[in-house]
Amino acid sequence: MKRFLSLTAIVALSALAACDREEPEATSPTALQTAETSGVAEAVDAYVQSPSEANAAAADRAFAGLDREIAELEQRAAETSGKAQTEARAKVSDLHSFRAQQSARMAEARAGAGARSVGDAVRDAGQAVGEAVGEAADAVRDSVR
C-alpha cells in the first residue's frame, strides 16, 4: 500500500511539473489526432466498456502502432534541424504524454476488471509514470538548452 501511495505522489508531482513547463511552440490538439492516437483511444475505451481478452489484445495492437509512430517521429526529429526538428520533438513529447495517459487508463481498467493482479497493474502504472517523468525531464532539459 505504501508503494502505491508513493507512486500516486509521484504521478501528482509529475503532473504539476508538466503543467509548469513552458513549451516553445505547443502542438495543437488536432495535431495529435492521428489514426494511431484515435485507434489507441478507441481501443482503450472499448476495453473500459467491455473488459475482455479480445479488447485487451486490440488495445495492445493499437499501442504497438502508436509506438511505431513515435519511433518514426523520433527518427525524423534526429534527422532534421530547425523548426521541423522543434515541431517533431514537440509532437513526440505530446505523443509520449498521450501514451502514458492511455497506458494508465488501461492499467486502471485492467485492475478494476480483475483481469490482472494488483501487482501487475501497479507496475504498469509505475511504468507509465516513469515514462511521463522521463518526458518531463527531457522537456526541461530541452528548454534549458
| CA gyration radius, whole angstroms | 16 Å
Mean pLDDT: 79
Roughly how much helix do the residues carry, as a percent range?
over 70%
| Main sheet overview | none
- Which secondary-structure class do the elements indicate? mainly alpha
| CA-based shape | globular
Distance between the termini: 39 Å
Q: Helix and strand succession? A: HHHHH
Number of helices: 5
Beta content:
under 5%
Counting DSSP E segments of at least 2 residues, the number of strands comes to 0
Q: Note poorly predicted spans.
A: 4-9, 15-30
What report would you give on this structure?
This protein is mainly α and 145 residues long. The termini are far apart. The protein contains five helices and no strands.
SSE topology sketch:
Layout: H1 2-20, H2 35-49, H3 53-79, H4 82-113, H5 118-144
Helix pairs in contact: 1-5, 2-3, 2-4, 3-4, 4-5
Overview in brief:
The protein has 145 residues and is mainly alpha-helical.
